[in-house]
Amino acid sequence: MKKVVGIVMALLLVFAVAGAWAEEIQGKIKAVDVAERAFSLEDGTQLWMAEGLPLDTLKEGASVKASYEERDGKKIVTSVEVSE
Predict the structure, then answer these.
(1) Is 27:61 a contact under the CB 8 Å cutoff?
(2) Other C-beta atoms within 10 Å of 58: how many?
(3) CA distances from 39 to 18, 44, 51, 52, 70 (A)
(4) What is the pTM of this model?
(5) Residue 7 within any structural domain of the chain
(6) Number of domains in the chain
(7) Which pLDDT band holds residue 18 (cuts at 50, 70, 90)?
(8) CA–CA gap between residue 65 and residue 30 (Å, rounded)
(9) CB hemisphere CA count around 73 (13 angstroms)
(10) How far apart are CA 3 and CA 36, in angstroms?
(11) Looking at residues 57-79, what average pLDDT do you find?
(12) Does some domain include residue 12?
């Protein structure tokens, strides 16, 4: 019985960690909202920058590649690469 409980707990841990993995997205920036610390892509995706990440590199028309995590229904950017 202890072995079964151990296996179940291990599987639950794996699924919990899998949900925290970052996803990646890329596209062109359509708009930047400095007050909300957010930007949107041309495809309509809206992303919010995590605290500590600078906003000064985000410019309309720039290409962006970002990693993000879903938190409270928002896509929170954890790392970002911007190119012209």
Answers:
(1) no
(2) 22
(3) 26, 10, 14, 16, 15
(4) 0.73
(5) no
(6) 1
(7) very low
(8) 14
(9) 0
(10) 49
(11) 95
(12) no
User: Domain limits at 51?
Assistant: 22-83
Domain containing 61 — which CATH number? 2.40.50.320
Burial of 5 (0-12, 13-18, 19+ CB in 10 A): exposed
How confident is the model at residue 2, as a pLDDT? 60
Q: Which DSSP string do the residues of 39-64 spell out, in sequence order?
A: EEETTS-EEEEPTTS-STT--TT-EE
Structure confidence by residue, pLDDT tens digits, 22-39: 899 999 999 999 999 999
Mapped onto helix, strand or coil, the DSSP state of residue 20 is coil
10, part of any domain: no
CA quadruple 35, 74, 70, 42: dihedral, nearest 10: -80
